[in-house]
Amino acid sequence: MNDNSKVLVGLLVGLAAGAALGMLFAPEKGTETRDRLSQSLKDLGDSIKDKAADEINNLSNLKDKVVSSVKTKLRQSEEEFVDDDLEHA
């Protein structure tokens, strides 16, 4: 499990524990507490979606860099191979 997954799992466990404790000790009516909890969960979901989109973008950029680097190395190797063939011909 990578660090991002561990952080996400920890965040979700902490959220669940906080929600349970909040409901037990809340001085508000149940409906108000549920509404606030629902909004908090929606905000958390939005935050997770944003973070996931950022990570996907980062991975896409990394993929593009790796592909570009591999293509450059292949071109260099091909040029060296052609140069060696011309020298030995």
TrEMBL record:
<dbReference type="Pfam" id="PF12732">
    <property type="entry name" value="YtxH"/>
</dbReference>
<dbReference type="InterPro" id="IPR024623">
    <property type="entry name" value="YtxH"/>
</dbReference>
<dbReference type="InterPro" id="IPR052928">
    <property type="entry name" value="Desiccation-related_membrane"/>
</dbReference>
<protein>
    <submittedName>
        <fullName>Gas vesicle protein</fullName>
    </submittedName>
</protein>
